[in-house]
Design a protein that fits this description.
This protein is an alpha/beta fold. The chain contains 11 helices and 5 strands, in the order βαβαβαβαβααααααα. Helix content is 55%, strand content 12%.
Amino acid sequence: MPIRIAIVDDNINLLRSISQNLSNFEEVTIVFKAMNGQDAVSLAGTEHPEVILMDIEMPEMDGIEATRIIKTKFPDIKIIMVTVFDRDDKIFEAIKAGASGYLMKDEKPSRIVAAIEEAIEGGAPMSPTIALKTLQMLRQQVVVGETVVQNIESVSSPEVFNLSKREFEILEKIAEGITYQQIGDKLFISAKTVRKHIEHIYEKLQVHTRFDAVKIGQQNHWF
């Protein structure tokens, strides 16, 4: 079953563009579109999307306030901010409001679909620039234990994590930011099988998101 999504943006051209681009992916189906936060709150209760792509600056009610209300009323709905703002204060406010992820509007459609899938799995998808800013904010507040850093940096081979050849191939595809269906097509396996392999990858790497899995690979120069 495709993932039920909604798109909220006050720019009619961007709303139309994102809708058209995502409609080409069978992994998702658009259940509603809205141009302000107030309409998003109302429609969320009647259309029951699984994921909402939410703009920030909008009339009547902005995306952060809409996110806060929707997460209070419907905590199971995942909300990904899709915006042009990469300011620290907006990122922090969105996270506090309950956003599950934060993407820039210039992301490729395939990356947006991958982020939707990641959010459904309980992950926190972010554009690279946003992830870096988030890490910088965390570093200002939290001192990372030396032991943890050494454990991450001392591992240099996928075999140490017991990754199979197929799992490593899928991890490489994850790093490309493509969808489960596209990974399956490239490796001649079903999307369902891809999901199962990714579950095993997360378990072996002891992570919960694509970002964290790819980060371990990058730190160890696997790709």
